[in-house]
């Protein structure tokens, strides 16, 4: 079956998420550009690791909730479907139960983004990724 053509809104959303993911990984990286998977502790270069959601369903309400998005390796994020028990423990230790409860309360909210919202998110995350990369003197490419 032919691949369905993405709508301009989907394209804008994908770009916003790509920028968010990049920011999360660069923000967590050390000055060599490496970051640790929050659920297994293995270290990878930021380009070889993913940004994984603590709350798995990728509704708009949680998609860009930064406190719930952290570096995860492919094995944990995809094969272990976010490695949820370890992720929960990591969140409790690093983000705290109060903030987790706030995120849980919001996870079913419906949020409408239009194309401009996504474009603004993309711009903002790109700007922050650039700033973090500059501070650490690591390459964004
Ligand atoms: Zn991992």
Question: How is the main sheet built?
Answer: 2 strands, antiparallel
The unique ligands bound to this protein are:
zinc ion
Structural class of the secondary elements?
mainly alpha
Mean pLDDT: 94
Quickly count the helices: 6
How big is the Rg?
15 Å
* Helix content, binned percent: 40-55%
Annotation, overall tally of beta strands: 4
- For the largest beta sheet, what order do the strands appear in spatially? 1-2
Oligomer: single chain
- Could you tell me the strand content as a percent range? 5-15%
End-to-end gap: 34 Å
Poorly predicted runs are none
> What order do the SSEs take from the amino end to the carboxyl end, as H and E?
HEEEHEHHHH
Q: Overall 3D geometry?
A: globular
What report would you give on this structure?
With 141 residues, this protein is mostly helical. It has a domain at 29-113. 52% of the residues lie in helices and 10% in strands. It is built from 6 helices and 4 strands, in the order αβββαβαααα. It has helices at residues 8-28, 60-63, 74-79, 84-94, 97-106, 115-136; strands spanning 34-36, 43-45, 50-53, 69-72. The chain is globular. The model has no long low-confidence stretch (mean pLDDT 94). Bound molecules: zinc ion (ZN). Residues 37, 39-40, 42, 72-73, 75-76 line the site of zinc ion.
Task: Name a few traits of the molecule.
binds zinc ion; 141 residues; mainly alpha; two-stranded antiparallel ribbon
Short synopsis of the structure:
This protein has 141 residues and is mainly alpha-helical.
SSE layout and pairing:
Blueprint: H1 8-28, E1 34-36, E2 43-45, E3 50-53, H2 60-63, E4 69-72, H3 74-79, H4 84-94, H5 97-106, H6 115-136
Antiparallel strand pairs: 1-2, 3-4
Helix pairs in contact: 1-6
Bound molecules: zinc ion.
């Amino acid at each position: 079956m032919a691949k369905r053509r993405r709508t301009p809104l989907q394209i804008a959303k994908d770009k916003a998420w790509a920028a968010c993911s990049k920011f999360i990984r660069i923000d967590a990286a050390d000055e060599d550009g490496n970051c640790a998977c929050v659920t297994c502790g293995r270290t990878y270069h930021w380009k070889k690791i993913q940004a994984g959601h603590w709350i798995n369903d990728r509704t708009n309400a949680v998609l860009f909730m930064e406190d719930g998005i952290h570096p995860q390796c492919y094995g944990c994020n995809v094969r272990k479907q976010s490695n949820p028990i370890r992720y929960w423990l990591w969140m409790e230790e690093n983000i705290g139960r109060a903030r987790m409860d706030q995120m849980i309360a919001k996870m079913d909210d419906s949020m409408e983004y239009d194309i401009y919202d996504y474009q603004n998110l993309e711009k903002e995350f790109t700007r922050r990724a650039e700033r973090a990369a500059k501070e650490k003197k690591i390459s964004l490419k």
